[in-house]
TrEMBL record:
Gene3D superfamilies: 3.30.70.100. This is HMA domain-containing protein. The lineage of its organism: Bacteria, Pseudomonadati, Pseudomonadota, Alphaproteobacteria, Rhodobacterales. Transmembrane segments: none annotated. It holds the Pfam family HMA. It comes from the Bacteria. InterPro entries: HMA_dom, HMA_dom_sf. GO terms for molecular function: metal ion binding. Residues 1-59 form the HMA domain.
Length: 63
């Protein structure tokens, strides 16, 4: 699943997003320049909740 994370703008944001996803048992490939992440191993609702708890709003991207 791919998610748009518009307020992910720097290396610190990238690390925080990766940590939030790993904390709930998933894996994230972060594309900072596109402000998107690709997540595997988690349901959409878990990804959105983990990112929100870390301070990042996200929306699923249609593939």
């Amino acid at each position: 699943m791919i998610f748009s994370v518009p307020n992910m703008t720097c290396g610190h944001c990238k690390a925080a997003v990766e940590a939030a996803i790993e904390e709930v048992g998933g894996r994230a490939d972060v594309y900072l320049e596109d402000r998107e992440i690709e997540v595997s191993g988690l349901p959409e609702s878990t990804v959105l909740s983990a990112l929100k708890a870390a301070g990042y709003e996200a929306t699923p991207v249609e593939e």
